[in-house]
Amino acid sequence: MTTEHFDAIVVGAGPAGNSATLTLARGGLKVLQIERGEYPGAKNVQGAVLYADAVEKLIPDFRDSAPLERHIIEQRIWMLDDTSYVGSHFRSDNFNEDKPNRYTILRAQFDKWFNKKVKEAGALVICETTVTGLLRDKKGRVTGVTTDRDQGEVTADVVVLADGVNAVLGTRAGLRPEVRPKDVALGVKETMFLPRETIDARFNLKGNEGVVIEAAGTITAGMTGTGFLYTNGDSLSVGIGCLISDFAESGVRPYDLLERFKRHPAIAPLIEGAEVKEYVAHMLPEGGYEAVPPLYGDGWVVAGDSAQFLNAMHREGSNLAMTSGRLAGETIVAAKKAGKKMSAKTLKAYRAALDDSFVLKDLKKYRRLPKVLETNKHFFTEYPRLLTHAAETWLRVDGVTKREKERDIVSAFRHRRRLSGLVSDMFKMGRAWR
Amino acid sequence: MSQGLTMVVCIKQVPDSAQIRVHPVTNTIMRQGVPTIINPYDLFALEQALALRDQLGGTVTVLTMGPQMAETSLRKAMGHGADRAILLTDRFFAGSDTLATSFALSAAIGKINAETPVDVVFTGKQTIDGDTAQVGPGIARRMGLNQLTYVSAIPAIDKAAGEITAHRRAEGGVQVLKTKLPCLVTMLEGTNELRRGSLPDVLRAERAEITTWNAKDAGIEDVTKCGLKGSPTKVSKVFAPKPRSERAAMIEGADATPAAIAAAAVETLVAADPALPGVITRPSALA
Ligand SMILES: Cc1cc2nc3c(=O)[nH]c(=O)nc-3n(C[C@H](O)[C@H](O)[C@H](O)COP(=O)(O)OP(=O)(O)OC[C@H]3O[C@@H](n4cnc5c(N)ncnc54)[C@H](O)[C@@H]3O)c2cc1C
């Protein structure tokens, strides 16, 4: 055992861990961050949307040095059936602003950059080291961690668990119930190389402008989930994700699903000629508010994916991770300054700060949504078909009167969902949205 | 007398060649974003030095010449247990070929030697980016060290007698060699497995002050022997070779004899490439 003692130990160097460690180090604490990957970002899923606001709160001038791929000027939201899609596009020159709001990034590079800032702030960071368990005293208080290295124990006043979606450490220590399969999705994603000029031409972009596409519909083979395509500098991120419980039940192989998505007539021309550079599979916490575990206790707090902080509806994860990491850090720094023990009573302030922020407020707003989507699969099958059918019927000019077309569309909806079904769907969605 | 061995392990930070890509359009090597690693061959040298330290005591210093970011590799080596790390960095070193590199490294080793006499200098067999295997021998030559290349094991070192016994891979066998210390060893791959450092090791490595020397610190007066100026090797062009054959040919002939199939294949090859010798000896087994 090392004789060294730290003020705080942070497990993980993802967005949550980096934000927590940075805040702690700036607050003057002696902090050790432990990451199992070869370097920060090595284990993290490539290609993602970064929300500037959460980074700015930590590193206001991040745009000067962070590895950013493109700023997003256009968002497409598509409903797909097997051959068509209907959707909405929003593109605005207002997004070409001095300080754009959303960027595409490659996580491996971004996390590495972020961690460099953490080190510069004075934190001690070690990689290729897995935390295997938590040290507890007789009263059950967390007093440090054990790692997979020789003489691998190290103690601290408080441990920040930012170990990602599996939440193995908290579960193993009995600090929280096990993550349920219906509360996590499995995302598979490829980074596909395509020359910058081709991407610019194909998506109508210039400079560092970028596009993101979010897609739902029959592409998930009746499972609860979504697909996406993001433009990076000279690559595309293409992926699809569904609930683990659905994959288990349907027997559909995630990779096959991605292949099918890539062959969809709406997607195939966009990725044509692109060369797969990387393939990753990673889980996402999608249980929402109802799945949020206990967030603090004697000598520990939990942040980011490990706390199930992900807004699946808006595809926001890293910003919740960064904000929760920062709030955890601020809570601990304040407690330390006030000379308080890192007890559950002290760390309760972290929960209060989260309740007060968009993190828990947004999750609370959508608290019913995971259940609605999980138990109403027709949102992913019937509705896309009905919508594309409606659009096609409406647009096809074939001598059929417009009144007949209207009747056809309405009757298709009634036939598939019946009036009661339509009303109840609207009610369910409406409630889940509130 | 023995206070253990003083060992220097030269390592190089290289791009992970498994992840280098050639731009599909311009055909140039895309260096951007390619992760760097310690030259894999050097890791066998590092472990050999650490094992000798475990056995006989002493110190292991890792030395690298490279840009500031090569510090990462030095810290990594310390995390595996090396005692000390020296980074040789200077703009004068940029563009060094193997001659200029061995010149600069020799100067630095000479400086270490002036503090404590060095017993063994280690390098890997070669690097994965240059593939020359010249730097190790270059250092030995400049410093007048006995050199043992392609070493697979070091069964004995007798510091008092100033002797080292090494196994060296040679064509068709292993040579058992004995020579005098100090010497230079280039280690063969696959000869050992690098240890994982303990938690105290990695904590120490992360915090360690990396000694940084510029050309002057290393005692180099004549910088024209460094970097691009001191490098007679000139790279005129880097390109991806054309794939040699477009596609494999399927040979029909379930009912022909192997000899007939082979003969037909040879004929086709010779017809396609007149540079091939016209007369081909027929393997007797097929006749
Ligand atoms: C396919 C996919 C697409 C996504 N797209 C987006 C997007 O576009 N925008 C967005 O905001 N979010 C997106 N997310 C979600 C986002 O990736 C996460 O919400 C975010 O990474 C959570 O950050 P974190 O720090 O909590 O966890 P992570 O990023 O998972 O980091 C956890 C870190 O802890 C390390 N670790 C784990 N266990 C241990 C241990 N025992 N010892 C040491 N280290 C350990 C891991 O190696 C890892 O580096 C996406 C997720 C997926 C799967």
TrEMBL record, chain A:
Domain ETF-QO/FixC ubiquinone-binding: 207-283
Protein task: Could be required for the formation of a functional nitrogenase Fe protein. Probably accepts electrons from FixA/FixB and reduces a quinone.
Family the entry assigns: Belongs to the ETF-QO/FixC family.
Residues annotated as domain FixC-like C-terminal: 369-434
InterPro entries: ETF-QO/FixC_UQ-bd, FAD/NAD-bd_sf, FixC-like, FixC-like_C
Gene Ontology molecular functions: FAD binding; oxidoreductase activity
Matches recorded under SUPFAM superfamilies: FAD-linked reductases, C-terminal domain, FAD/NAD(P)-binding domain
UniProt entry keywords in alphabetical sequence: FAD, Flavoprotein, Oxidoreductase
Cofactor needs: FAD
Record-linked Pfam families: ETF-QO_FixC_C, ETFQO_UQ-bd, FAD_oxidored
Name listed for the protein in its UniProt record: Protein FixC
Entry superkingdom: Bacteria
Oxidoreductase recorded as keyword: yes
KW rRNA-binding (keyword) present: no
TrEMBL record, chain B:
Keyword Protein biosynthesis: no
Superkingdom field: Bacteria
Alphabetized GO MF terms: electron transfer activity
Pfam families associated with the record: ETF (PF01012)
Gene3D superfamilies, per database record: HUPs
Keywords, sorted A to Z: Electron transport, Transport
Cited InterPro entries: ET-Flavoprotein_bsu_CS, ETF_a/b_N, ETF_b, ETF_beta_N, Rossmann-like_a/b/a_fold
Range of residues in the leader sequence: none
Keyword Transport: yes
Domain Electron transfer flavoprotein alpha/beta-subunit N-terminal, chain residue ranges per copy: 26-222
Primary role: May play a role in a redox process involved in nitrogen fixation.
Family the entry assigns: Belongs to the ETF beta-subunit/FixA family.
PANTHER family the record matches: ELECTRON TRANSFER FLAVOPROTEIN BETA-SUBUNIT (PTHR21294), PROTEIN FIXA (PTHR21294:SF17)
Quaternary context: FixA and FixB form a heterodimer.
Stated name of the protein: Protein FixA
Source organism per UniProt: Roseospira visakhapatnamensis
